[in-house]
Design a protein that fits this description.
Elements: E1 2-3, E2 11-15, E3 18-21, E4 26-33, H1 42-56, E5 64-75, H2 86-95, E6 99-111, H3 120-123, H4 139-155, E7 162-165, H5 168-179, E8 190-193, E9 196-199, E10 202-209, E11 222-224, E12 236-238, E13 250-258, H6 262-279, H7 284-302, H8 305-309, H9 311-317, E14 321-330
Antiparallel strand pairs: 1-8, 2-3, 3-4, 4-6, 4-7, 5-6, 5-13, 8-9, 9-10, 10-14, 11-12, 13-14
Helix pairs in contact: 1-4, 6-7
Amino acid sequence: MTYKTQLIQPIAALESNILFTSNGDVVWCYEGHLPEIYSLSEKDYEALHACWFQAVKTLPAGTIIHKQDCYQQKEYCAEELPNTSFLEQATRSHFRGRKYLTHRCYVFFIFTKNKSLTRAHYINPFKNSNKAIPKQLDDALLHFKAAVEDAVAFINTSRKMAVEPLDAAAIETLTRSYFNGYNTDVDTDIVLDNNQVIIGDHYFDALAVTNETCFGEAVQTSTINEKFSTDSYVFHKGFIDGLGLALDENHMVNQILILDDKHKWRKLLDKKVEELNKSSNFGTQNKVVLGKIQDILEQINTDETSRVSGLTATKLLQVLLYLFTLRTHFS
């Protein structure tokens, strides 16, 4: 099955770094500048995690945060290197055409409750629709915009990383490259054939991790890098850095975080506890379920991170935190 790429472009309108999608969502788009690989200690990773947590915990319930890291192999262009002395010529010859892995990081804050944009003709991206977008953001969007800007400002107070807004031209270029399979020389189609995705000369595979139990009992902010660590010095790496620059292939890592509403879950579970209390004498299974729900309620009430991480809610929903790996093979 083949889809023309121009038909699945999700952009309805662009305003500065704000993207209005054809299905009614509104996205604030940023590019992240992360610290150099192998440059952080264990305490640095802890501080980095704390910074992200403090930044996003004040965002409204229902916010979707999408962090996308794109890694692409490219050939080094040595034309700008000096070429006069013998040593300069040898250096230029050595680096010319050598492959290296580039990294670009993007952060998207997604608002999904703009009721004025969720009419049927916006939900279907394949249907021709009126692209008229409200000239002004409503109060809910203005509140969300202020919350996002506060979160970004807090992130930028860290000396380890920075986040800056993308302009409309960069957003459009990024979107076109994404749906064109990062083919740079031609506009092509997306072909779905026998459980694989082919876009031009590039073949795509995907891996999704959709449950926190896949990470084991606990998730650390960093792990020891066994390759470079010695008895006298320990190198650390991020928890999923093995899918970053250490993976020497064209690939993409997407981390999607949904900020859940703990008050909604508290109300739902309180009602369930009340029902189970009335029926706990009718079977041991009811007592077991009641105990588990009470444990979850206690975690929601005492653990501030339960809203941000989604770990409490995933015990009920099973899917809140996603990790996708997209590998591209060049023929």
